[in-house]
Amino acid sequence: GAVVSQHPSWVICKSGTSVKIECRSLDFQATTMFWYRQFPKQSLMLMATSNEGSKATYEQGVEKDKFLINHASLTLSTLTVTSAHPEDSSFYICSARFGPEQPQHFGDGTRLSIL
Amino acid sequence: DQQVKQNSPSLSVQEGRISILNCDYTNSMFDYFLWYKKYPAEGPTFLISISSIKDKNEDGRFTVFLNKSAKHLSLHIVPSQPGDSAVYFCAASGFGNEKLTFGTGTRLTIIP
Fold this sequence. Notes:
The structure holds two protein chains of two kinds. Chain A is an all-beta fold.
């Protein structure tokens, strides 16, 4: 149980385009979903927390207009990297949990490369 | 400021022996701790957790110990198996705070 699916697993696109990443909880309803970013040889850094039906809460230093998060249902959250540039190239990973003080379950991540 | 630290970037253990992975934290507000295992090209997989009201939690071959006074937790795997070879992350959060803070990981290699 507790499977989280993330799509796509990798994407390469030109600078200036927008990229959408989907995160789905397949076998449970996720009251809260989280988006992380990982730079090489560093730990996962939380970008934002999203609760179904409400606006995402962004961590300090994360541009909310650059990284648009939508959590329209209890099983789906999306992260859109708008007008992506090479410095946005990174590994993005989502997680979901089905209740407070429950462990987060992670997707397999998306490797984003901006040319 | 690295609030969760895993000071050993790598660890090698003989198959069948005990693997002990360590984690230290500095934030006294943390009260929920988790261990995740990660294979290459996959997301972290939840292994085991412990809340601050306990000092030990066991699940099969995995046991997590928490020493609040030392702000230290450890994960014991016994007996170690080749499939345990992966990167292990500890993570922590505070009461009512959903944010997980991760350590930098320890690469465990089980030697057959």
